[in-house]
């Protein structure tokens, strides 16, 4: 998908336009510091490319932009739960239509704010009142913040993730550090395991790292760069790659797609719906991921 070639449907400013790819409208940013695109379907970052760099974000060549399915790649917003704790998997935020509430820019970059609130559709799935604000800050780095506010008259509990797919040259060559040594292995029935301080993949991985440090670094020798992921408001970092067998089973990923992606996610992980982050009426919580290149 060549974002620059898509015709503008609406020009909002010198740097910000609305474009459409298949059935999905996107906010496109073209700034001296970086270019980016955020789909209104899912509030989903699909591209972030600092000047002079390959895209830091991976999108599947087979992703479905039909306005219904979740997009494969980018930064899905998993909310109000993460995983298969209820239906739909990873919640409804990633398949809901978000609204562009605000955009502003200066010489350093562009900030967008997207919003999603409860509706009859969401109430039928999850019977609570809420307000979500997704702030996307596009400068020489990408900062994505999900602010969750309880607008109900009663407390409720949630989990979630900013499910970032990083673009790498060859996942078999990258070295990842900073995720910590303790992890819950989703491929071993949530067994708690101990690993090394450096991770090099040789097969599928689906791990919830419970003690990540402030910065997780993905060293990419093929593209000659390191991607740095800094999270806040989280309780874990999830690392995932489906490998060949997983990619082959997905209609929206090419068979070799796994070779150029690695998910490093800012997550509020919970084993069940009732054990997540609890917000009292009027309270808020912000989950953030910041991605830069070194």
TrEMBL record:
<dbReference type="InterPro" id="IPR025532">
    <property type="entry name" value="G6P_1-epimerase"/>
</dbReference>
<keyword id="KW-0413">Isomerase</keyword>
<dbReference type="GO" id="GO:0005975">
    <property type="term" value="P:carbohydrate metabolic process"/>
</dbReference>
<dbReference type="Pfam" id="PF01263">
    <property type="entry name" value="Aldose_epim"/>
</dbReference>
<dbReference type="InterPro" id="IPR008183">
    <property type="entry name" value="Aldose_1/G6P_1-epimerase"/>
</dbReference>
<comment type="similarity">
    <text>Belongs to the glucose-6-phosphate 1-epimerase family.</text>
</comment>
<protein>
    <recommendedName>
        <fullName>Putative glucose-6-phosphate 1-epimerase</fullName>
        <ecNumber>5.1.3.15</ecNumber>
    </recommendedName>
</protein>
<dbReference type="GO" id="GO:0016853">
    <property type="term" value="F:isomerase activity"/>
</dbReference>
């Amino acid at each position: 998908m060549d974002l620059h070639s898509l015709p503008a449907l609406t020009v909002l400013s010198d740097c910000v336009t609305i474009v459409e790819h298949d059935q999905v409208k996107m906010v496109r940013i073209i700034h001296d510091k970086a270019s980016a695109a955020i789909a209104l379907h899912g509030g989903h970052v699909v591209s972030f490319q600092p000047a002079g760099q390959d895209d830091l974000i991976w999108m599947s060549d087979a992703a479905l932009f039909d306005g219904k399915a979740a997009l494969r790649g980018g930064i899905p917003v998993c909310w109000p739960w993460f995983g298969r704790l209820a239906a739909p998997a990873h919640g409804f935020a990633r398949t809901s239509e978000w609204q562009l509430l605000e955009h502003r820019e200066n010489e350093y970059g562009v900030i967008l704010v997207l919003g999603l609130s409860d509706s009859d559709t969401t109430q039928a799935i999850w019977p609570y009142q809420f307000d979500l604000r997704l702030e996307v800050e596009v400068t020489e780095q990408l900062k994505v913040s999900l602010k969750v506010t309880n607008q109900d008259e009663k407390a409720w509990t949630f989990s979630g993730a900013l499910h970032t797919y990083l673009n790498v040259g060859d996942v078999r060559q990258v070295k990842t550090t900073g995720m910590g040594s303790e992890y819950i292995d989703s491929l071993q029935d949530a067994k708690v395991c101990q690993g090394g301080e450096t991770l090099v993949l040789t097969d599928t991985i689906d791990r919830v790292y419970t003690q990540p440090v402030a910065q997780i670094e993905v060293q990419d020798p093929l593209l000659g760069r390191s991607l740095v992921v800094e999270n806040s408001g989280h309780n874990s970092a999830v690392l995932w790659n489906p490998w060949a067998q997983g990619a082959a089973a997905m209609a929206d990923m090419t068979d070799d797609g796994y070779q150029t992606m690695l998910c490093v996610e800012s997550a509020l992980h919970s084993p069940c719906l009732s054990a997540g982050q609890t917000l009292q009426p009027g309270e808020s919580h912000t989950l953030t991921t910041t991605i830069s290149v070194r």
